[in-house]
């Protein structure tokens, strides 16, 4: 039974001798999660959720990003939504999935509520990543036609993380995953408007996983063939899932070592095109004033989401390949300020947006989800034309952010929210997380 194999791994990992590299990458994931969490915690929908669920705040042992006390589930939910809000959270490419938002939100809330050590917290994070990324690979790419993996697959990741930290035994762990499968949700229609719903998928997944694990350790049972059953998760939400991928390399080849950390504050499907245009600009020295036309060829699964030549508002702009590439061309980057009101109305950005065309390339489309690439062509007003193939995205495992670059990203995003002194202290704590007796992080 598939859940039994996953539980075997998870129980062993509670006391295993983890490779140093795995611990290091788990800490990188937590640092990157905090970098996305902090700016997301001071904007909607996190601020709306704080108002809506006030009765679960200012009590409990877990904490929001601000340090405000919260119940375990409420902290997991609000932090899960906040960490997925500004589009700077991590990606496991082969599953088309943002694991940090649901998994680390659930793990931290559970660890804080139970007084778990930093080492135990990291083990929960690792188990959550390893199990959920593999479930994601098993059901991709067909799952991504309608479903948002961060909400669906993330539910299994958060349940696995919480169950690990709660010390679930083999049976309890299986039942946590079995139960949460019924509550794995998140529809891609949420991406197509100015709605606040998409970040809630990460929050819901974190919450659902926590309560499934909390109930399982008290005796709640679920359908143990939930993943591969005739009318279970795989068959209901994908076409011909390959469940051999759900256990391949488990406990040996750690997926957490191969996570993408974002270098731009927008949808990851736009990244290869942004990187390609910036490469050509830096190589050939032209400015946005020199450009006549830009053509972008990329993969269909991404283009279906990001092809929006007339974005309205901040949220749609983050999911517009035309806007994000034009902004990078004009301003040199796509950071949080790319979506401020003055940038959304920037005349130069809007003018260059209209110069961009895009198409789904059949060959690049076949490479999805394992490769995210773009072929970029820039034509200048003086008649020159340049082309470049961007095989990966800056931040992918093949072109990773260094530790120093990750520290820089954290400082850039954290300091405006919590100040330089507190950000510096938090970063220092995170880098030695496995040595800490607790993961309060609220001081």
Keywords:
single chain, 443 residues, alpha+beta, 2-methylcitrate dehydratase PrpD, 60s Ribosomal Protein L30, Chain: A, 2 domains, four-stranded mixed beta sheet, two-stranded antiparallel sheet, 6 strands, 51% helix, globular
Describe the structure.
The strands form 2 sheets. Strands 4-3-5-6 form a 4-stranded mixed beta sheet. A two-stranded antiparallel sheet has the order 1-2. The chain folds into 2 domains: 2-262 and 400-435, 2-methylcitrate dehydratase PrpD, CATH 1.10.4100; 268-390, 60s Ribosomal Protein L30, Chain: A. The chain contains 19 helices and 6 strands. With 443 residues, it is α+β, with helices and mostly antiparallel strands. It is globular, with a radius of gyration of 21 Å.
CATH fold title of the largest domain: 2-methylcitrate dehydratase PrpD
> What gap, in angstroms, lies between the N and C termini?
44 Å
The CATH top-level class label of the largest domain: Mainly Alpha
Note the beta-strand portion.
5-15%
Largest sheet: 4 strands, mixed
Tell me the CATH superfamily of the largest domain. Answer: 2-methylcitrate dehydratase PrpD
Shape: globular
Kindly give the count of domains.
2
Mean pLDDT: 97
What's the β-strand tally?
6
Q: If strands are numbered along the chain, what order do they take across the biggest sheet? A: 4-3-5-6
**Gross CATH architecture of the largest domain:** Orthogonal Bundle
Q: Runs with pLDDT <50, length 5+?
A: none
SSE pattern, N- to C-terminal: HHHEEHHHHHHHHEHHHHHEHEEHH
């Amino acid at each position: 039974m598939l859940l039994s194999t996953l539980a075997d791994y998870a129980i062993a990992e509670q006391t295993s001798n983890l490779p140093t590299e795995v611990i290091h990458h788990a800490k990188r994931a937590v640092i990157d999660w905090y970098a996305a969490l902090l700016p997301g915690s001071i904007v909607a929908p996190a601020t709306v959720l704080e108002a809506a669920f006030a009765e679960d705040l200012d009590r409990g042992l877990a904490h929001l990003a601000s340090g405000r006390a919260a119940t375990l589930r409420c902290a997991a939910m609000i932090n899960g939504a906040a960490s997925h809000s500004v589009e700077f959270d991590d990606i496991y490419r082969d599953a088309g999935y943002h694991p940090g938002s649901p998994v680390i939100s659930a793990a931290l809330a559970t660890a804080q509520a139970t007084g778990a050590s930093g080492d135990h917290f990291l083990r929960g994070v690792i188990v959550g990543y390893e199990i959920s990324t593999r479930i994601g690979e098993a059901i991709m790419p067909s799952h991504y036609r309608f479903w948002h993996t961060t909400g669906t697959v993330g539910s299994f990741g958060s349940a696995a993380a919480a169950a690990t930290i709660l010390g679930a035994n083999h049976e309890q762990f299986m039942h946590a995953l079995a139960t949460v499968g019924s509550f794995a949700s998140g529809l891609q229609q949420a991406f197509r408007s100015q709605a606040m719903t998409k970040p809630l998928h990460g929050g819901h997944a974190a919450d659902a996983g926590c309560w499934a694990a909390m109930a399982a350790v008290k005796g709640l049972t679920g359908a143990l063939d939930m993943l591969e059953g005739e009318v279970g998760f795989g068959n209901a939400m994908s076409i011909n899932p390959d469940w051999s991928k759900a256990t391949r390399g488990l406990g040996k080849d750690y997926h957490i070592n191969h996570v993408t950390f974002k270098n731009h504050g927008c949808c990851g499907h736009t990244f290869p095109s942004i990187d390609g245009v910036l490469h050509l600009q830096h190589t050939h020295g032209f400015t946005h004033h020199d450009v006549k036309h830009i053509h972008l060829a990329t993969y269909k699964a991404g283009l279906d989401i990001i092809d929006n030549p007339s974005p309205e508002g901040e949220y749609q702009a983050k999911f517009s390949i035309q806007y994000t590439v034009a902004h990078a061309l004009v301003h040199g980057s796509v950071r949080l300020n790319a979506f401020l009101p003055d940038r959304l109305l920037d005349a130069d950005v809007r003018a260059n947006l209209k110069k961009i065309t895009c198409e789904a390339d059949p060959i690049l489309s076949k490479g999805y989800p394992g490769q995210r690439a773009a072929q970029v062509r820039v034509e200048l007003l003086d008649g020159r034309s340049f082309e470049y193939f961007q095989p990966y995205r800056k931040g992918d495992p093949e072109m990773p952010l260094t530790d120093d670059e990750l520290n820089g990203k954290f400082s850039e995003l954290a300091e405006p929210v919590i100040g330089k002194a507190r950000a510096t202290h938090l970063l220092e704590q995170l880098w030695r997380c496995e040595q800490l007796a607790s993961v309060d992080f609220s001081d």
